[in-house]
């Protein structure tokens, strides 16, 4: 039976609207069960603490359980691969950091690709590092350090918590931008590196501001500069490295949420909206300030652009430094 043209057009318009209605319904019903936020680092670290604060916020706002699942191993690659292979339904999310954007170049044969296998949801926060030197190092500021390093190429060294970590990449970026030759001493974790700089076995280190601040205040190490665009509220009297002698320098630790590629846009948008409310909430701002962190507020598109730029930035530094994945 042939339908009248007017009725046919009405039915066709209704059918075309079904996908949009379906997307809206899916967003409104999400989440209907427990959501996992997978963290590729051990429990108790600053990254894990931020993940748990966000999980608690989302749970209160969205009315379903958000649990943090720690899957440490292989520089966060174990957790990242697991999430990449999970269903693209918004119920398995990845807590990621700039360690992941470094891995895009540092670990060329990994079974996933951030840009291919994930969709950007929202950033969470960023925190600065502080460049410290042992008091025996004859440099009281960044300009002195650069001058000393150029006068004695290869004689100074700096510790990090391991190859490819933000602490390591901050050091390599500093070397590249200051045109200096400083030897990298990798440790298996930040505790050993921190112990040795306090003891004078190594000369310099980039470290988390909140962790190193008590040692700075006690005179056990000398703070030369912080790594962000603006001075840190934790060490307000310490200049940024950019203003202290290496213009344009910036190396932070930042965190964000990604989901498997193909996750419905309506779900991504709902998560993004709630995370943006969280990063502007006074109670979370206060908690993050204790860690020396500040919230990051971006749309999915802006976060995706930020990710791609960060991958490019660290790809250049990995290649210049010749860094290779720890075996």
**Outline:** globular
Unreliable segments (pLDDT under 50, ≥5 consecutive)? Answer: none
Helix content: 40-55%
Find the CATH superfamily of the largest domain.
Bordetella uptake gene, domain 1
The number of strands is 10
Strand content: 15-25%
Helix and strand succession? HEHEHEHHEHEHEHEHEHEHHEH
Report how far apart the termini are.
Answer: 71 Å
Question: What does this molecule look like?
Answer:
This protein has helices at residues 5-29, 46-62, 77-84, 98-106, 114-117, 142-151, 166-178, 190-199, 209-217, 241-244, 265-279, 282-290, 300-321, and strands at residues 35-39, 66-70, 92-97, 118-133, 157-160, 183-186, 204-208, 222-226, 252-260, 293-295. It is of the alpha/beta class and 327 residues long. It has 2 domains: 32-126 and 253-321, D-Maltodextrin-Binding Protein, domain 2, CATH 3.40.190; 128-244, D-Maltodextrin-Binding Protein, domain 2, CATH 3.40.190. Strands 1, 2, 3, 4, 5, 6, 7, 8, 9 and 10 form a 10-stranded mixed beta sheet that branches. β5, α7 (166-178) and β6 (183-186) form a beta-alpha-beta unit. 42% of the residues are buried. The model has no long low-confidence stretch (mean pLDDT 91).
Helix and strand layout, with pairings?
Blueprint: H1 5-29, E1 35-39, H2 46-62, E2 66-70, H3 77-84, E3 92-97, H4 98-106, H5 114-117, E4 118-133, H6 142-151, E5 157-160, H7 166-178, E6 183-186, H8 190-199, E7 204-208, H9 209-217, E8 222-226, H10 241-244, E9 252-260, H11 265-279, H12 282-290, E10 293-295, H13 300-321
Parallel strand pairs: 1-2, 1-3, 5-6, 5-7
Antiparallel strand pairs: 3-9, 4-7, 4-8, 4-9, 4-10
Helix pairs in contact: 1-11, 2-11, 4-13, 7-13
């Amino acid at each position: 039976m042939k339908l009248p043209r007017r009725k046919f057009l009405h039915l066709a318009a209704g059918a075309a609207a079904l996908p949009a209605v379906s997307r809206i319904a899916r967003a409104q019903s999400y989440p209907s069960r427990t959501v996992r936020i997978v963290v590729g680092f051990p429990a108790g670290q600053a990254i894990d603490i931020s993940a748990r604060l966000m999980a608690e916020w989302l749970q209160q706002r969205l009315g379903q359980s958000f649990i943090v699942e720690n899957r440490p191993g292989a520089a966060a690659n174990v957790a990242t691969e697991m999430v990449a292979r999970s269903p693209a339904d918004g119920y398995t999310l990845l807590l990621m950091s700039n360690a992941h954007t470094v891995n895009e170049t540092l670990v060329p044969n990994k079974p996933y690709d951030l840009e291919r296998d994930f969709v950007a949801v929202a950033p969470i926060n960023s925190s600065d590092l502080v460049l410290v030197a042992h008091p025996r190092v004859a440099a009281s500021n960044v300009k002195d350090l650069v001058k000393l390093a150029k006068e004695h190429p290869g004689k100074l060294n700096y510790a990090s918590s391991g190859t490819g970590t933000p602490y390591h990449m901050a050091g390599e970026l500093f070397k590249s931008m200051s045109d200096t030759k400083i030897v990298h001493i990798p440790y298996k974790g930040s505790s050993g590196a921190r112990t040795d700089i306090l003891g004078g076995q190594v000369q310099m280190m980039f470290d988390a501001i909140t962790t190193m601040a008590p040692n700075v205040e006690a005179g056990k190490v000398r703070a030369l500069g912080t790594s962000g665009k603006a001075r840190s509220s934790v060490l307000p009297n310490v200049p940024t490295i950019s203003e202290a002698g290496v213009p344009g320098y910036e190396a932070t630790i930042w965190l964000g949420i990604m989901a498997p590629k193909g996750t419905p846009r309506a779900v991504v948008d709902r998560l993004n909206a709630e995370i943006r409310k969280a990063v502007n909430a006074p109670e979370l701002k206060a908690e993050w300030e204790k860690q020396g962190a500040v919230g990051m507020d971006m749309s999915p598109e802006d976060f995706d652009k930020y990710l791609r730029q960060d991958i490019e930035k660290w790809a250049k530094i990995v290649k210049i430094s010749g860094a290779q994945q720890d075996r």
